[in-house]
Structures are given as structure tokens and as C-alpha cells.
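Quick check before the chapter quiz. The format below is the same one you will see on the exam, so make sure you can read both the input and the output lines.
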Amino acid sequence: MRFLPYLKNTIGLMILAVAISASAADAPKTYRNPLLPDVNLADPDLIRVDGKYYLYATTHGSGFDVYMSDDLVHWTNGGLAFNDPRGGDWAPGLLHSHSDKKYYLYYTDSIPDHQEGGPKKQIGVAVADSPRGPFVDKKVFNEDAIDAQPFEDDDGKLYLYYVDLFRGFKIMVQPMSDPLTKKGDATLCVYPTEPWEKISGEVTEGPYMIKHNGIYYLMFSGTGADSPNYGLGYATSKSPLGPFKKYAGNPVAHRSDKIFGPGHHAVVEGPDKKLWLVYHQKWNEHQGWHRFLAIDPMWFDGKGVIHTRISRDTDEPAP
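Here is the expected output.
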């Protein structure tokens, strides 16, 4: 019967297709930095709500778009979450308040200072009912300051970490009575003291607080952000207010043969229940602001030391 060879070939192709499909499904998932290579993106922060990640970053400067992902690897632009007609926005910091369930966006804004003749840098805060916005501007929080990052402790107490430019790139912590209200005075946390923080300008910035086994880890970036020498370090304390002691092995993320300026990051639990560093790298070793989004694993060893493995242009196991 003439149709039998045809039938056998068809069945064989179907079996092969199923086998290929099963093999693809079983293949390990990977990612490759840079993520979103067509977007000039830096200073990311993100939150996870109902299993979905919402990321905000320095991009076009006129407020912030929100990027959304289910896996930390594949991101879609959800549109403008905060529209700032003043422009000059960067370094977002996000808080999902447990008390009122609202979303707070702290940001740095650079606006003209007609009296001084140059741009004035200030921290503002906006609020929304959804992580997609729209965020509505509420107030100026601090002047001569940048890089605000909120932290809500296990006991519900709030703190805002930021960089005081008036004092010279010193990271401060401000206790808060609620997301819009300061409580008492700010306290000095860290400032540039180590050689790696002074290679291309004396800078400590981009604070990010995490808590592990009762210890407070104040992570931060060091030296000028436009430099390929930009890197990440941390300091520890038994209190969110300090005093903080810098880790002797800093920086824990730094430039290498193909890595330039890794820094200004956030830390989040991935779908794999492990910690992930979400940060930016520079495209090349030249001074400048051409940067891209990256992720890489972060972990604590048995002694409580932070480790990470920075990558670029290589396939790595996905979250």
C-alpha cells in the first residue's frame, strides 16, 4: 500500500518534533547580561507584588517608566509610572508600605537654581495606589541630597538612607514616623575613606539596606558613577542607625577585563527563592553615563560575608 511509507515518515517526524520540544522544555533556563540592551538604564530599584516584579530606573529623566517581569530576565515596559515635567529624575527608591498598602517612590531631581546659577539636587517623594502608578508628587524631602532608599524593619519602623552632598557624598540615615514624615535627626553612616572609594572622585552613594540573621548590611557604591572603577561594597551594624563597620574585603563587585563600573543596585529574592543583585554596568571603560541593566546572584556564606558573581556576555543559570 503506497500510503504506508508516507504514514511512517509522518509518524517519525511527529515523534522527532515531540522529542525536540521535550528536550527544549528540559533545557536549563539561562540569562545573559546585558538585559534590555537597547535601553540606557541605570540605578535600578524594584519591588515584587503578587509574584510580579516592578522595576524603576534612571532612563529618559522625565520621571520613571515601570518595567515588569515574572522571572527577572524578560522585561516589558509598562509605560510612564511617574511623570515629572521638571525633568532631571534619577535614582528611584521604592517602598510598599505595610501600614497603608500604598506605594512610595523616592527620587532625585535636578532642577535649575537661578540664585546659584547651577542645578540644585533634591530628594522628592511621590505616592500611588498601584506599582504601575500613576505616582503623584507629594513633597521635597531633602535638598543638596541624592539617592534616597527606604527601609522598613521587621518591627515596622521606617528609615530613609540617602547621600548628603552638602557634607560631601556621605551616606546618612533618617528615621521616619511614616513614609512622608521625618522623625528626629539624621545620622552619619559611611563616607569615603578607602582607596577604592576615591579612585575617580571621593564618593560613597547608592545606599541599599538589607537585613540578614539580625545584622544590618548597608550596601553602597563607591567612587564616581561615570567611572569604570565604580564598584559595590558594604558595611555592617547591629542597628539600622549604626555605627557601621566597612567590610575589609570591599569592593565585592568591581571592574575586570570585560566588566566596567558595576554598581548602584537593589537586592531581591528571585523565583528560585535565592537572592539576586539587580544593578547596572557601563558599556565600556570610558568616562560617561552609557549603562545597561544586569542581574547576578548574591549570597551570604557561613560567616555572613556577602558574595556575588558579576557576568557579561555569557550564558548564566537563570533565577
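If your answer matched, good. The mean pLDDT is 92.
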